[in-house]
Amino acid sequence: VLPAPYADVSSRWLDARMDRYNGAWLRAAERAVAGDLRSELLRALAEALRRASPEATWFHLSPWPMSGCPVARAFTGFAHGHLQALADSHRPSLAECPAHSLRPETLLRVLRLCSPELVVSEAVGVVGAARPAASEASALAPSPASPLQTHAARATPEATPVVRATSPAAAVPDPPAPDPPAAQAATPSAPAACPAA
């Protein structure tokens, strides 16, 4: 064991190294937000929050090390997937930063860069919490099908053939009805002439 003040040299070196790693993480997030990758970063973080907390409630970030935190994995995966676009001249480079080096306070700052779509609070949980804003949660959640869409999705029943009534046959005139018996009586003949005297 080294005597004081050298006993904690390795601890100080590690802390300084972690500070530099987290500086690289934060610069990468700032470059993404300032450039064309903001929407992609926001989508990755919001989707991770939605999956981790489907009810759109606060998701409590994990203490360091954050290897089991889905939001931390989403960010480090995004950053390592865009090394060329997010690279800068500082050391260490983003490629040199191990994923487990990301600290909770750095991730909170990254999440704040995506406000107002993401809401961050340091007063919730052990190291802080985050959640998508109401509008962002509604946009990510799958919308239920409307009654009209559900009705249209159903199979359309086969149309019942319409049977048209055929025109009736031409009416045949009935034979004239016979005259009633009173009408058939013979007409009385004229009276006979009286004989001449």
What would you say this structure looks like, in words?
The chain has helices spanning 9-34, 38-52, 70-81, 83-86, 104-112, 134-140, 147-153; strands spanning 59-60, 118-121, 129-132. The protein has 197 residues and is mainly alpha-helical. Strands 1-3-2 form a 3-stranded antiparallel beta sheet. β2 (118-121) and β3 form a beta hairpin. α1 (9-34) packs parallel to α5 (104-112) and α2 runs antiparallel to α3. The longest helix is centred in the first third of the chain and has 26 residues, at 9-34. The termini are far apart. The relative contact order is 0.13. The model is unreliable at 142-153, 159-163, 165-172 and 182-197 (pLDDT under 50).
